[in-house]
Every structure is written in structure tokens, then in C-alpha cells.
Amino acid sequence: SGLYLLLCYPHVIYMMKLTHNDIIPYKTIDNIIQGNMIKYATYGQYFILVHENVKISIYNSYTCQLLSTFHYHQHTILSIQWNAHDTCIISRDKSYIYQWNIITHQIIHQIPYNTTNNTSSSSSPSPPYNINIYTNDIDKLYYPAPPTDTTDTTNTNEINIYDMNKNKVLKSIKCTVNKENTSSSSVNKRCNSTDV
User: Fold this and answer.
1) How many whole angstroms separate alpha carbon 121 and alpha carbon 124?
2) Cα separation, 98 vs 37, whole angstroms
3) 46: which of 2, 62, 85, 166 is 20 to 30 A away, CA to CA?
4) Per residue in 95-111, pLDDT tens?
5) Which residues contact residue 70 at a Cβ distance below 8 angstroms, ignoring those fewer than 6 apart?
6) Hey, which residues does 157 pair with through a beta bridge?
7) Per DSSP, which regions of 71-149 are E strands?
8) pLDDT band for position 78 (cuts 50, 70, 90)
9) How far apart are CA 163 and CA 161, in angstroms?
10) How far apart are CA 135 and CA 90, in angstroms?
11) Mean of the pLDDT values across residues 65-72?
């Protein structure tokens, strides 16, 4: 019926209808607790909400009805992504990447993700929110390899290509990122997440 915009605030979600010259309020979901990330499914029929740092809830995009909630993360969720067919969710915290089946509610894969060789949790830096995970099919997962140097402003990082059928990293691709250009201090953070 058209384009819709989701606005995620800590305690409420607004669904806005986009027209050719206006943005119109359409639906509201109240009683959200610490909502901080939101993501439409590939085909738009669902959206997922990360709230209370460690919980993932799935909603029907047309009715805004809550369908299910996953709560297996022990650390703050840093990234979420749908697979290409909207049958799975992939989420990551500082220790693991999970692949969830939204129909059976089971964990399909649990991939260790260590951000440092130091095993002390008090000294282990958490990855920033702008490090994402991606998938373009049901077999491959693309995600940044754990950083080896957290002090240089320019650092060569690697993108891992993970085969979820073989449960191993197929190869890594090196890329250079200038960390000085990734600061988000000037962004208004009152709205935690949006998707359209």
C-alpha cells in the first residue's frame, strides 16, 4: 500500500506513512523498554526490534502485532540482519554471532566472535555499533574479523566470509578503514534507530 518509515525511540515505535510530499503518522507501539535497533525484513512483512540490549522481538509489519521474542544473548546486541528469504535473523554481540530460525525459534548457528585475545571481560573493548553483519543468501555470512589493533586511527581490518553449511571461514578480505571519519558524535541520538 506504499512506503513506511519506522522510528525507534527508547520507549515507543512510530510507523509513519510516506507520501509524495508528506510523512503521516500511521501506527504506534507503546510500552517498549529500551528500544535501540529496528530492521525491516527483506520483503517488508516483518520487522525486528532490539530492546533491553539483549532481546529481539519480531513484529508483523501490517498489524504491528508481536509475533515472538528471542532472548539468548548474554551481552549487548551490536548488529542485526535478515537473510535474503526472511526465514532467519542474524544477530551479533561481542562474543557470538547467532543465526535464528524465525519459524522454529531455534538457533541454527552459534559462531564465536572474540574482539581481543585478552580473556578478561573487564578489559575487552566492545565493538562499535557501526560494525555490521551481512548476508545475501542462506549459506554465506559476511562480518568484520576481530580487530587486532584498537589504537591506530588507520587500521587494516578483514571481512570474514563464513560458510554456514561447512561451519568455517572460507576466506578473509582485507580493507582499510579510517576511524577518524566514522565518529557519530554529531548525530542526534534521541531517535535510536530507523528503517524504511
Assistant:
1) 5
2) 16
3) 166
4) 888 888 888 888 888 88
5) 55, 56, 57, 58, 89, 91, 100, 105
6) 175
7) 79-82, 88-92, 96-101, 107-112, 140-144
8) confident
9) 7
10) 9
11) 91
Provide the β-strand partners of residue 97. Answer: 92, 111
Encode 39-96 in three state secondary structure: EECCCCCEEEEEECCCEEEEEECCCCCEEEEECCCCCCCCEEEECCCCCEEEEECCCE
Question: Which grid coordinates belong to 11?
Answer: 520507549
* Rounded CA separation 31/82 (Å): 25
Question: Torsions phi, psi of 180, nearest 5?
Answer: -65, -25
- Written as one letter, the residue type at 127 is P
Cell 525511540 appears where? 9
Q: How far is CA 159 from CA 73, 107, 183, in A?
A: 23, 23, 20
**pTM, two decimal places:** 0.68
**Rounded Cα distance, 50 and 69, in Å:** 10
Cell of 19: 507520501
Per-residue pLDDT band at 83 (split at 50, 70, 90)? confident
Residues 6+ apart with CB under 8 A from 2: 17, 18, 19
CA 145 to chain centre: 16
Q: What's the grid cell of residue 123? A: 578489559
Return the SS3 of 180.
helix
116's grid cell = 581481543
